[in-house]
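for the recovery benchmark. tokens below, seq after
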């Protein structure tokens, strides 16, 4: 039995669709809201990561769990730890977790520290695990732009190797089809090239037919512009700004061949990610 979380979202939705078509797979969708679960005639259970009892009930009988990282929240680490504890208590054997490239306790991108914590929590349980450490999602790039099509942040001329969510899903499906072969593995999922924000904005804009451009900011300007525009808490501001400082320092520039090795096809370019 394979359980898929996040099936009401992008990555989990693609994984659920692919595995639902695969008759060899016993599939369970674990969602927050039953009414929004995709209808593939599979078993569907409801829980949120922060509800340990409901999560244990939803995960009983599951051998392999695809765990999509939770939505950004100040208590995300605790939500993840609760769900991971529940998975172990329910008898899950193997967790496949969507982590982040360079996940580490001292990562510049502060959300990568949450992913490090989730990886550590999974390791501590003794469950078999596979970590899919994703770079930034290339198909989300246009969402970083304001109404005038400007992406602003302190990324400088740093490069990043954004990955298509469809490739993350394809890689996850490959792992979930033969989990034992991937037990203990950590994959870093990237696109086929590392681009500067200037290059990425221009190419994403050309692909979607809406001019986009990048304007560099200082760290101080980045905090000030976001404080002025949003009623956001400090942890959220830190997450947003460190997206760019992590790119500036080069910690997201590594290009790997893990997507082609796992999926058997080349990693999607920004254009492919945005138009196909
Ligand atoms: N690498 C990157 O650039 C990047 C960018 C954005 C996000 N991410 C991370 O990658 C994950 C997957 O991306 P995506 O594009 O598929 O996101 P998405 O479309 O927002 O889907 C997230 C899925 O996770 C579920 N979920 C969120 N928080 C949950 C919780 N606390 N308990 C149970 N289920 C929860 C959502 O359920 P509902 O439908 O009920 O909300 C949804 O099904 C995100 O959740 C986020 O952690 C990475």
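predicted aa per position
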């Amino acid at each position: 039995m394979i359980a898929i979380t996040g099936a009401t979202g992008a990555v989990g939705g693609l994984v659920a669709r692919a595995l639902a078509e695969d008759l060899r797979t016993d599939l369970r969708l674990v969602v927050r809201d039953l009414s929004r679960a995709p209808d593939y005639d599979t078993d569907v259970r409801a829980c949120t990561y922060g509800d340990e009892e409901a999560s244990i009930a939803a995960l009983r009988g599951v051998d392999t769990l695809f765990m999509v990282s939770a939505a950004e929240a100040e208590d995300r680490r605790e939500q993840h730890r609760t769900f991971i504890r529940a998975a172990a208590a329910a008898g899950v054997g193997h967790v496949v977790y969507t982590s982040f490239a360079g996940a580490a306790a001292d990562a510049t991108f502060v959300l990568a520290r949450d992913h490090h914590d989730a990886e550590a929590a999974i390791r501590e349980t003794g469950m078999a695990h596979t970590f899919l450490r994703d770079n930034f999602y290339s198909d989300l790039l246009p969402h970083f732009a304001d109404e005038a099509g400007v992406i602003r942040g302190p990324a400088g001329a740093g490069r990043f190797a954004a990955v298509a969510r469809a490739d993350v899903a394809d890689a996850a499906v490959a792992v979930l089809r033969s989990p034992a072969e991937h037990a203990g593995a950590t994959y870093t999922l990237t696109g086929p090239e590392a681009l500067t924000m200037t290059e990425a904005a221009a190419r994403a804009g050309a692909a979607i037919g809406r001019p986009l451009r990048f304007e560099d900011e200082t760290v101080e300007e980045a905090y000030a512009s976001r404080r002025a525009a949003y009623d956001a808490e400090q942890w959220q501001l830190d997450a947003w700004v460190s997206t760019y400082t992590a790119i500036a320092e080069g910690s997201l520039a590594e290009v790997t061949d893990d997507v082609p090795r796992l999926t058997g096809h080349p990693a999607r370019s920004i254009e492919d990610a945005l138009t196909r």
